Amino acid sequence: MYIYNVVGLIKCGYIAEKAAFDLYNVVKGGGKVANNVAMLEGFTKEVVLESESLTLFLLVRPETDLGEQFKAWDADNQEFIRVNGWLFSVSG
After folding, report:
1. For 31-83, how does the pLDDT look when each residue is reduced to its tens digit (9 = 90+)?
2. What is the C-alpha to C-alpha distance for residues 56 and 90, in angstroms, rounded to an integer?
3. Are residues 45 and 83 in the same domain?
4. Is the domain of 49 the same as that of 16?
5. Do residues 47 and 63 lie in contact, with contact meaning Cβ atoms separated by under 8 Å?
6. 55 and 29 together in one domain
7. How many Å apart are CA 54 and CA 12, to the nearest integer?
8. Are residues 12 and 51 in the same domain?
9. DSSP secondary structure string for all residues of 16-82
10. Which residues constitute the domain of residue 73?
11. CA-CA-CA-CA torsion sign (79, 81, 62, 49)
């Protein structure tokens, strides 16, 4: 599988340095397209949500109400998730 971006062709499974406009970044071994999938869909605000047993590193849309239920990009697991914001405190 190959990913095209402004820098050129990148083979999945190798580390790619941050490129111009930071469009794609490849995670070693996983061959996953990193946070840029979410950024291209408007999830550009970085937030850290914490509870007693869990910390989430997320990207959300700038207008997201973090006290409600919302869609977010989980930066650790590289997937979209649904979050009940009232269960967490915001840090960072």
Report:
1. 445 678 899 999 999 999 999 999 999 999 999 999 999 999 999 999 999 99
2. 10
3. yes
4. no
5. no
6. no
7. 30
8. no
9. ----GGG---B-TTT--B-THHHHHTT--EEEEEE-SS-EEEEEE-TT--TTSEEEEEETTTTEEEE
10. 41-91
11. negative
What length does the chain have?
A: 92
Both structure tokens of 87: 């269960």
Task: Locate 17 and state its tokens.
Answer: 């340095």
Residue partners of 72: CB distance under 8 A and separation at least 6: 43, 47, 56, 58, 59, 60, 64, 80, 81, 82, 83
The residue assigned the tokens 């971006």 is 5
Q: What is the count of structural domains for the chain?
A: 2
